[in-house]
Amino acid sequence: MGQTATQTKWVYLFKEGSKDLRDLLGGKGAGVAEMTRAGMPVPPGLTITTEACRQYYADGRKFPKGLWEQVTEALKEVEQQAGKGFGDAANPLLVSVRSGAKFSMPGMMDTVLNLGLNQATLTGLQRLTGDERFALDAYRRFIQMFGKIVKGIEGELFEDALSGAKKLAGVKTDPELKPKELREVVEAFKGLYKKHTHEAFPEDPLEQLRAAINAVFSSWNTERAVAYRRAEKIPDDLGTAVNVQTMVFGNMGDGSGTGVAFTRNPITGAKELYGDYLRNAQGEDVVAGIRDTEPISGLKKHNPEVYRQFQDYAEKLEKHYRDVQDLEFTIERGKLYMLQTRNAKRTGEAAVRIAVAMEGEGLVSREEAVARVEPRQLEQLLHPRVDPQANAKPIGKGVPASPGAATGQAVFDPDTAEEWGKEGKAVILVRVETNPSDVHGMIAAKGILTSTGGTASHAALVARGMGRPCVVGANQIDVDLRERKFSSNGTVVKQGDTITIDGTNGAVYSGQVKTIEPKPSADQKTLLGWADAIRRLQVWANADYPRDAEKARENGAQGIGLCRTEHMFMEEERLPIVQAMILADSTKEREKQLEKLLPVQRSDFEGIFKAMHGLPVVIRLIDPPLHEFLPNFEALLVEATELRIKNPKSPKLKKVQRLLDRVEQLREANPMLGLRGCRLSILFPEITRMQVRAIMEAACNLKKKGVDARPEIMIPLVGHVNELRFVKHELEPVARQVQKEKGVEVEYKFGTMIEIPRAALTASEIAREAQFFSFGTNDLTQTTFGFSRDDAEGKFIGRYVEQKILPQNPFETLDRNGVGRLMAIAVDEGRQTRPDLEVGICGEHGGDPDSIQLCHELGLDYVSCSPYRVPVARLAAAQAVVAEGSTTK
Amino acid sequence: MGQTATQTKWVYLFKEGSKDLRDLLGGKGAGVAEMTRAGMPVPPGLTITTEACRQYYADGRKFPKGLWEQVTEALKEVEQQAGKGFGDAANPLLVSVRSGAKFSMPGMMDTVLNLGLNQATLTGLQRLTGDERFALDAYRRFIQMFGKIVKGIEGELFEDALSGAKKLAGVKTDPELKPKELREVVEAFKGLYKKHTHEAFPEDPLEQLRAAINAVFSSWNTERAVAYRRAEKIPDDLGTAVNVQTMVFGNMGDGSGTGVAFTRNPITGAKELYGDYLRNAQGEDVVAGIRDTEPISGLKKHNPEVYRQFQDYAEKLEKHYRDVQDLEFTIERGKLYMLQTRNAKRTGEAAVRIAVAMEGEGLVSREEAVARVEPRQLEQLLHPRVDPQANAKPIGKGVPASPGAATGQAVFDPDTAEEWGKEGKAVILVRVETNPSDVHGMIAAKGILTSTGGTASHAALVARGMGRPCVVGANQIDVDLRERKFSSNGTVVKQGDTITIDGTNGAVYSGQVKTIEPKPSADQKTLLGWADAIRRLQVWANADYPRDAEKARENGAQGIGLCRTEHMFMEEERLPIVQAMILADSTKEREKQLEKLLPVQRSDFEGIFKAMHGLPVVIRLIDPPLHEFLPNFEALLVEATELRIKNPKSPKLKKVQRLLDRVEQLREANPMLGLRGCRLSILFPEITRMQVRAIMEAACNLKKKGVDARPEIMIPLVGHVNELRFVKHELEPVARQVQKEKGVEVEYKFGTMIEIPRAALTASEIAREAQFFSFGTNDLTQTTFGFSRDDAEGKFIGRYVEQKILPQNPFETLDRNGVGRLMAIAVDEGRQTRPDLEVGICGEHGGDPDSIQLCHELGLDYVSCSPYRVPVARLAAAQAVVAEGSTTK
Fold first, then answer.
1. At what angle do helices A304-321 and A22-37 cross, to 10 degrees?
2. What ipTM was assigned to the predicted interfaces of this complex?
């Protein structure tokens, strides 16, 4: 190529590129380059770099300097390779023009085919192919695509004109149109073109090319491309490459054809060529699904020689790329052309099977195999899901908040849910929103559906913790709690009617829909086994109940990182005792109520310790503000107001008023930052003294029975070392006393949650008093950002992510620069004080793969997540090791 | 002294000590040592070190090893110097035993005098003095003091026995008791002693001494000593020294006497010996105020020679210590003894006058003079205060929330306050608590009194900002808003009755009480001038109104560090427009209301810019959550409920319900962490666009009139650089557009508040977009600690400080380790990105001397505080320079 040394190289011939230039040439460009280099039959072409696209935008949507010159120069080479001339009426070169970004972005821009046709080359094409109809059809397709894609003319206008012509000719399908009629269609299309662009359809092939390249660059920033990138977390500043490639035609009779094929089955992962073949057709016909395709094996029948050749290329490409390939090919009059190769998308099931198989075949190492399965693919396999074969139509759609599908009878209040649940009925709890007083109903339900809220609503958080399928924010659903029914898009569902929800995609169905149950395959176990051998991070689970702890252990959890004691307080038979305890006028009265709670708490802990025999269990002492256990303030206010008017002398008014006063006293301006966590322990030490007694009694009782209980007592919301010192000073004597009473010794630790910026900033002091740290990243994110999650997620975080003010929702993926920096300070300085400090994370981020990566980098000892996410976390922890390029082997 | 080298030196003879050993010998011990070294007549004695006291506690309240041996050995030296023997019946040495901590702690422990008396030495004393009555009286006093102070016997028991003896003898005063009767008193006292201690009064002087030393050590941790230290911020682990000193007697006839004197007048600062003298008396009589003293000049009349000698010593000591001395002396039969010298406590007025005078006399440098005046002493001089001479009795007492005294008619709602204020009446606004909708009434009032709340309540914050005297949390006051009255300790105050409040000490008086107006003295101006020359930190002020800005400038402010725009929204005539703006259904409707606000805001800004001609004015764009401008949710809920029952068809119900729905929509779980600050600007850019237009129009208009306006536009609550980038992108075009419209250019800056931990942690990124940082340490403290100030101060911070979980209230004094660390990160990393970054603080800490010290250390450019605290901040900023030992000179 003749450009001077000072000029940027904007254009690569296929033969100049390689798979290593993917950043510059895009996925498609790198793929054809690689195949060209491997000597496979690729129609010659050129690729304009992504850098050119970036420069195009930097220059205010202008071709960068030298680009066009390089394109025309490269085109000359392509002409030579193809043995045809661009615009040469005698032997015309036709090209396709396609976008090709680094990451596949399906549907970003449609392809323009047959570019280079005009009145003159049309005649040449007719002559060369000896097929007038074919040539005319190619021309009308080109005008249509160019008009629609390059000039933005509505596609339907062309379709209408075409169907008009068919009606006029009295035929039903395109192929029935005769050349004369097609010529009229061509004229009609040109007329349409002129009407909308106020200029004639360009005759000059170079002018056509220039406009098409410009259109591809522009397509990078269409709304749908931007939306796709946001969903897939693809950066906006990559730009797209443009591929200009010699046309080959699969629609030149029965000796021609086109197809797409995968080197292995992308649904099941089976090792077999898998794909579609269409005789006498162009690639776009396969994609559009206009005609019924036959399986790739069809090719074997029709043309065994070409099939064998294709099979050979497929095998080579898979070996070359060491991954399953997604291939496009065309056969023009018996000659096979390879048009594209790229790594194949696949289902979770296939991903696991392929990764394990390829390791067996020696294609990839165990580390690579582990890195090949995306955590979210693995997650698909862990939950029941609605059978896509069932083809059920949803009656509504919400935010998928906790994965999995569930079927049951709709109920509209937690008490009914619990009652029916006890009777053995499967129920789905339907609410406008949920709050802590619904928890007993949520436990009893198979799934939860709310008409409001987002992924961080109470319903979503609790459901994920329990592994209950959950759909929230289904706002087409109009819930009438009083009438116990909801209506959605015309369907009315009453209490007792059966519904199905799919928490993986947010769909809501009326009636029972067939679901597929998850079953861990042998391959899955093998893969997770490898992950376990590779990862350095331990994976623990958050579990409040023995059944959750059992599930966690079954899924491979190596400890319980967070057992919240307050959910235990919420269960139906306990709540009145808890309320009496809170409303007590004196410490003595409070202690009386606490005595009633002691045996209940102890038995909870015994269950969890038993399930986790030999493994650590981190138990967090009471954390939420006390008013969360009391009736709602506003409801009480309305009740009191009503009573005051209707029945001012009723004794009930007095009672309600008294309760109202107490709730008002406890209520706070900002409960998130108020009297909770260790602050409660400091003001009401009797509550946590009871809890520590219950923990230690449970541990000692079990020890006597041969169960190895390892309690780690976690004091939440510490911001100053003195808080921890004060609370430990209250609680350590209780722990010692219980052991003395029981006559056994138990291994136990005292530690704290790091969930306040000040705790991280003064970790070196706090580590003097804490044997372990556990990052409570939900609250740490709230305080570090100054975001109240309850308020922020609904009101502005969505907007922030949309407008790219935040790269992602920091409650889903840990914020590296802010929260992550605080964590780094805490880990480093905490360990300086106490080298054997145990450090983990129990915030919801503990189950998020990107966050797990950060935890690995920070040197945490473990991540703790929902029992149902443990396998995902095991995989992600191993991938973090692979990513840093240093495995444990 | 004979102790071996390996033993700690617990005991110093007076002649061995010096003023440099104050840590070890305490203030008193160092003082007598210094006077001894200077050759002044000090009765010989010894000092047991503070280290011995610390060791005493470390050993579980036991005398450290070797202490007693060293005491007895030193005592031998004292005997030699005094020429008397301890327990020597022929020539008895009597001693006083006193505590002496590093910092004076009045009332920590009373002195034990005359120790060493017993039956045998009593006889010796009688013989030596030839005064049987004197000796017996000394003995009875000793038994009484020893019994009370060392053994904890109730003092009244002794007093009762003594008055019984007087009644029996038929006399009225002690001196009238005859020796025989005194002997009976001694016996009675010994009986009392035995009854309460179950042992005989100790005859052995060494045993007496040992017990007395033990009692002094113990006195370090009495409740009242601990409470005093907490109030004065004296560390608990210093320990006290013990002084054992030869007794001299001022009560040996008219040639004897005793007194206390200051080398300058501690009330006015005048250069004159000032003090009290009492003939024929012991020191305790002066302190106890039993007998009327004469001024020190009395001594001159009675004994000019001794007076001259004393004057000479006083002068020498003042020069020696280079500070005003507080002296104790005794004259025994014509011989002057110096008993104590220490730096004198003084009033604010005296402190200023003395500091300036001493600089003039060449005694101290300007830096020292500046360091000599405590900021809180200066503050006394800046506010009117209740005249202590008036001897008024308060009817109630609350928390002093904003200093100064104010008299006015009580009113109970803000509208009346405003109305009466406009009529020229002085009013005091009395409320249970205040909220933003009271602000117009607070502006109109001379003072504010609330029955609830703490130093961080809304009333306190706003009042301090405005410099209005304010008393909050006066909980004996029972406010009846409906009846417009309050009652307090039996006094009923109705609307219109005159009351006086003193925000400096929290007192509430019925009626008018005489107050003293502040007048800056020439000395004060001189001292502050020196401070200005020394300090590196600039002092700016927080001012929301032109009148505050004027006051600030008058007090020496070099800029406005925080002008909050939302208070402007709260004023009566504007609130309805603001509410309409918030309740607007569309952006268009909102913009219509904003147009009405534009001229009002512009004129506010014009006023402030005019006042601050040539100086920077930092204006914060709208910050609080919008619901703060709307009616209270609960009140609306009650109203709607009432209407629903009483008049369900009324159109008013519809209106109220609509408003209720909107308020509910805006209401947040944690408003502190919700939709406020720059988040508002991002969701409703039209509001801040209007504000920036108002700012720039004001600045441009003034520029044309020759006023140099320097707006600095502050975007609050930024946590991520993209927020700032987004908002600036909205606002910068407005700023440019206004200048273009007006045809003038104005110097302006865009910057941000650092009040979210993440902002500090990512300061290097944020500084790319911000020309200035201003630490909003109120919110930064809230988020760093996870404390909601509204909730925490009332509910647990008090308890935390009491129980020493926190060393101080972090909302009053900056927390060094947490918040301070974040500030250090922000300053250092922000300046790395932008070396000329302007950094200040506008949180309330900006007026707190300890926090100013930290700001100086961190290298801030300025502190900004209430206009009324500017002089205090100027002084504190200079003291920070002096403290680091490097002045600008």
1. 140
2. 0.83
Cβ contact, residue pair B717, A784, below 8 Å: no
DSSP state for residue A628 in the 8-state scheme: G
- For chain A, the average pLDDT equals 91
Nearest-Cα distance to chain A for B780, in Å, is: 9
Q: Which residues of chain A make contact with B787, given a CB cutoff of 8 A?
A: 673, 719
Backbone angles phi, psi at A747, to 5 degrees: -75, 125
Chain B residue with Cα closest to A664: B634
What's residue B222's pLDDT? Answer: 81
Tens digits of residue pLDDT in A752-800: 999 999 999 999 999 999 999 999 999 999 999 999 988 887 788 888 9
A700 is catalytic: no
Catalytic choice (A842, A845, A856, A865) = A842
Residue contacts between A and B (CB atoms, under 8 Å): 198
Mean pLDDT, residues A204-229 taken together: 89
β-pair type (B257-262, A325-332)? unpaired
Catalytic residue list contains B567: no
- Total H helices, total E strands in chain A: 36, 31
Among A289-303, A795-809, B134-148, B834-848, where is mean pLDDT lowest? A289-303
Among chain B residues, the shortest Cα distance to A797 is held by: B679
As a dihedral over the C-alpha atoms of residue B521, residue B524, residue B529, residue B531, rounded to 10 degrees, the angle is: -170
Residue with tokens 């010529």: A183
Task: Give first-to-last CA distance, chain A, whole Å.
Answer: 47
Q: Which two tokens stand for residue A634?
A: 């506003």
- Contact flag B756-A672 (C-beta cutoff 8 Å): no
H or E segment to which residue A330 belongs: strand A325-332
Contact between A670 and B675 using a beta-carbon 8 Å cutoff: no
Beta-carbon neighbour count of residue B804 at 10 Å?
Answer: 11
Q: Do B669 and A788 touch (CB under 8 A)?
A: yes
Query: Of A637, A675, A762, which has the smallest distance from its Cβ to B796's Cβ?
Result: A675
Q: What is the pLDDT of residue B791?
A: 84
Work out the pLDDT band at A290, boundaries 50, 70, 90: low
Out of B755, B761, B786, closest to residue A821 by CB: B761
Lowest mean pLDDT among A458-472, A531-545, B343-357: A458-472
Q: Do B818 and A719 touch (CB under 8 A)?
A: yes
pLDDT at B399: 84
Contact A756 B788 (CB under 8 A): no
User: CA torsion A156→A159→A165→A171, rounded to 10°?
Assistant: -130
The enclosing H or E element of B759 equals helix B757-761
β-strands A515-516, A507-510: how paired? unpaired
pTM comes to: 0.84
Which residues have a Cβ under 8 Å from the Cβ of B104 and sit 6 or more positions away?
Answer: B27, B342, B345
From the list B675, B762, B782, which residue is nearest A673 (CB)? B782
Which residues of chain B are within 8 Å of residue A673 when distances are taken between CB atoms?
A: 670, 672-673, 782, 786-788, 791-792
Instruction: Please report the DSSP string for A790-847 in residue order.
Output: HHHIIIIIHHHHHTTSSSS-TTTS--IIIIIHHHHHHHHHHHHH-TT-EEEE-SGGGG
- In 3D space, the residue among A197, A283, A572, A286 whose CA is nearest the CA of residue A422 turns out to be A572
| pLDDT reported for residue B193 | 96
pLDDT digits (tens, 9 = 90+) for A70-98: 999 999 999 999 999 999 999 999 999 99
Selected residue of B761, B764, B779 to mutate for chain A interface (largest A Cβ count, 10 A): B761
A645 interaction partners in chain B (CB closer than 8 Å): 642, 645-646
Q: What are the strands, taking DSSP E only, across B645-803?
A: 710-715, 749-754, 772-775
Beta strands per DSSP E along A62-132: 95-101, 112-115
User: What is the CB neighbour count within 10 angstroms for residue B423?
Assistant: 8
